[in-house]
Write a structure and sequence with these properties.
The protein contains 17 helices and 13 strands. Helix 4 runs parallel beside helix 7 and helix 12 packs parallel to helix 13. The protein is globular, with a radius of gyration of 21 Å. InterPro entries: Glycosyltransferase_28, UDP_glucos_trans. It comes from Nocardioides conyzicola.
Length: 428
């Protein structure tokens, strides 16, 4: 038996998908990952075969570097980071406008490239990142069954009257004016309609007899897999989902070098891990605020600095690197300060770690709201938070109910790894 995994050329997408695929590899079956060259090293580390498949202009092997992106993509990234400095609505507007051009890149050509890979490999199963729209378009057009993995918050697949790009809920730290929300909602509807027209035009070229989509953002595979704990998802929304499986999390095994191992073994105080992921680490100003807030607390702090520049000098006993083995650090951490990316959230929950979340964009707002509602942490506005507020929030999650609640959900998630749930669901 063989499985083909299709992923954009981004580490944050590939890592959970590859982790899911280890369930097939451990069963002695063949795994091929179709992705771009930037993440070839990750595919090799997992021991999988790789088929070359580029699905978009940009790439990210682990830490995004604007200057390493192709022309146009670098400008788009700078625009995104600038929008995050103006807050939630500015960021969501920017991202909505960007979807007019960045989610279906050369859709007919890329779809045909996907079908060439499938024809050559003849896999028994196909697993696709939900955001690989050109790949899913290809498989839909050809009538090829596939498992569709939503790696972000489940709101990445709109249900009911939801509109893609408009958060169905947001944390209490964000109170945007109703008039501006209405404007954002109209924009997201316009983008949805334009995106659907583009999807349908490509679909007509690939399969002229196919039924056009009403909302291309709401299209999904034969089996929907959600890399998210079902306990954090609104039951009313769950009832609206198509056939699905909540994976809980897809947490990979991760090697630890001697320096990190020695640092963890020497920890005589609670460890706080700080990371804004592969993209948002570019907001070095917010990262500096977080570190300043942690400094007076007397804790052991590990920080993944990513692409941040201009950070303050840190205490010598802290651990700071551009990239750190996040899964290993979360296994020993008492709290996480995070941007609220879904990988970080699900990995922290699996480790039983409460969070202080500073969401910047997209589904991070809905994910942060779920953390807040479940009592698993607190949420702060990254553009207005002060060091004192950050420190107070960290102390509250360390000493209050979130720590116990996180340990409880972590124990539940570790009972059945997400990769095993995925394999059982796909094999039926």
């Amino acid at each position: 038996m063989s499985v083909l995994v299709i992923s954009p050329d981004y580490a944050s997408h590939l890592l959970p998908l590859a982790t899911i695929a280890t369930a097939w590899a451990d069963a002695g079956e063949s795994v091929t990952v179709a992705t771009g060259p930037a993440t070839a090293g990750i595919v090799a580390e997992f021991g999988f075969e790789r088929a070359d498949l580029v699905l978009g202009r940009g790439s990210n092997p682990g830490v995004i570097q604007v200057d390493e992106q192709p022309p146009g993509e670098d400008t788009a990234l700078r625009g995104f980071f600038d929008a995050t400095r103006h807050g939630m609505l500015a960021t969501l507007r920017y991202q909505a406008e960007a979807r007019r051009t960045d989610l279906l890149w050369e859709p007919v050509d890329r779809a045909r490239a996907v079908l060439d890979v499938v024809e050559r490999l003849q896999p028994d199963h196909v697993i696709v990142d939900h955001l690989a729209f050109s790949a899913r378009l290809a498989l839909d057009a050809a009538g090829i069954p596939y498992a569709d993995v939503v790696l972000g918050h489940p709101s990445a697949l709109p249900v009911g009257d939801e509109v893609y790009g408009y958060p169905p809920v947001w944390p209490t730290a964000f109170t945007p004016p109703e008039s501006e929300l209405a404007t954002l909602h109209r924009l997201c509807r316009d983008v949805r309609d334009a995106f659907t027209a583009e999807w349908n035009a490509a679909l007509h070229v690939l399969a002229p007899a196919a039924t056009p989509s009403v909302d291309a953002f709401a299209e999904h595979g034969d089996l929907l897999m959600l890399n998210y704990p079902s306990a954090l998802h609104d039951p009313a929304r769950t009832a609206l989902l198509p056939p699905h499986a909540f994976l809980g999390s897809a947490v990979r095994a991760e090697p630890v070098d001697d320096e990190v191992r020695d640092w963890l073994e020497a920890a005589d105080r609670p460890v706080v891990y700080v990371s804004f992921g592969s993209f948002l680490s570019a907001r070095g100003d917010v990262l500096a605020t977080a570190l300043d807030g942690l400094r007076p607390l007397g804790l052991r702090v590990a920080v993944a600095t990513g692409s941040a520049i201009g950070l303050p000098d840190l205490p010598p006993e802290w651990l700071a690197r551009r990239y750190l083995p996040q899964v290993a650090l979360l296994d020993r951490a008492a709290a996480l300060v995070t941007h609220g990316g879904n990988n970080s959230v699900t990995e922290a929950l699996t480790a039983g770690v409460p969070m202080v979340v500073l969401p910047f964009s997209t589904d991070q707002f809905a994910g942060a709201a779920a953390i807040e509602a479940a009592g698993l942490g607190s949420v702060l506005d990254p553009n207005t938070v002060t060091p004192a507020e950050l420190g107070t929030a960290v102390r509250a999650v360390l000493d209050g109910p979130p720590a116990h609640l996180a340990r409880t959900i972590g124990a539940e998630l570790r009972q059945t790894p997400g990769r095993d749930i995925a394999r059982a669901a796909l094999l039926g």
